[in-house]
Amino acid sequence: MSTRRYFGTDGIRGRVGEGPISADFVLRLGNAYGHALVAAASDRKYWHKPIVVIGKHSLPSSPTLAAAPARCRPAPPRPARAPPRRRASPAPPAGGPSQTGSVSLAFELEQPPEMVWRALTEPELLSEWLLPIADLELAPGAGFVFRTQPHPGWDGRVHCRLIEADEHRRLSYTWVAGDIDTVITFTLDRTDAGTRVHLVQSGFRTDQKQNFGGARYGWRMMGGRLVDLLGSMT
């Protein structure tokens, strides 16, 4: 492809008629995209036929290139799949609602467990990637509080109590915010590349699906911030 710069968005660019930009290339590219889109859609729980929109400009090459994808061979039809069987939901046990599945995430980090442990337990580092905290004593039963901006229905405080602190291996504490009463557990495993961190937040009730989804989104975001913090420490 020519080294000359062309105006346009990110993608495949070049001068039409100079390899690889040709009608045959666009035909094969469109066919590949079609198969990839159908394959990606098939992995979803509810499959929908992908929709492709082709736009074109006013240059002389436009009709030739725009017509090429229309000659693509259709992707093979997706086999029909029987609808999933509905399973009866178990009745909640006496004494309160049952628990939902726990939020469970894993992070592959390049730093050793000793450095990751610091980010999980030192208040200054915790405040960088998780939430502001003034003090944390690594003694079973010790209480501590994360503080952030309050929101309607929440004072911005997360009340915690340490359950377990196995240095460089496992950290667990309660996580109570509003009507959320859960337990956070970090498990650290040394790997050839660094550390695998397995995070579990357990204890959500079945009527807390919105909180459950919010926690899963929040931990993914916080995990990215943890990666950035550890990167800045090395």
CATH fold naming of the largest domain: Alpha-D-Glucose-1,6-Bisphosphate, Chain A, domain 4
The strand count comes to: 6
How many distinct domains?
Answer: 2
CATH arch. level architecture of the largest domain: 2-Layer Sandwich
Q: Give the distance, in angstroms, between the N- and C-terminal Cα atoms.
A: 39 Å
CATH class of the largest domain: Alpha Beta
User: In percent terms, what proportion of residues is strand?
Assistant: 15-25%
Number of helices: 5
Give helix and strand order, one letter per element, not per position.
HHEHHEEEEEH
Cα radius of gyration in angstroms = 26 Å
Mean pLDDT, as a whole number? 78
Structural class from helices and strands?
alpha+beta
Strand line-up of the largest beta sheet: 1-6-5-4-3-2
Shape: elongated
* The CATH fourth-level homologous superfamily of the largest domain: START domain
How would a textbook summarize the main sheet? Answer: 6 strands, antiparallel
Q: Overview of this structure, please?
A:
The chain has 234 residues and is α+β, with helices and mostly antiparallel strands. It folds into two domains: 15-85, no CATH class; 103-233, Alpha-D-Glucose-1,6-Bisphosphate, Chain A, domain 4 (2-Layer Sandwich). The chain is built from five helices and six strands. It has helices at residues 23-42, 62-67, 113-121, 123-129, 209-233, and strands at 103-109, 143-147, 157-166, 170-177, 180-190, 195-202. Strands 1-6-5-4-3-2 form a six-stranded antiparallel sheet, covered by helices on one side. A hairpin with a 4-residue loop joins β5 and β6. α3 (113-121) packs across α4 (123-129). The chain is elongated and about 70 Å long. 13% of the residues are buried. Residues 5-9, 42-47 and 84-98 have low confidence and may be disordered.
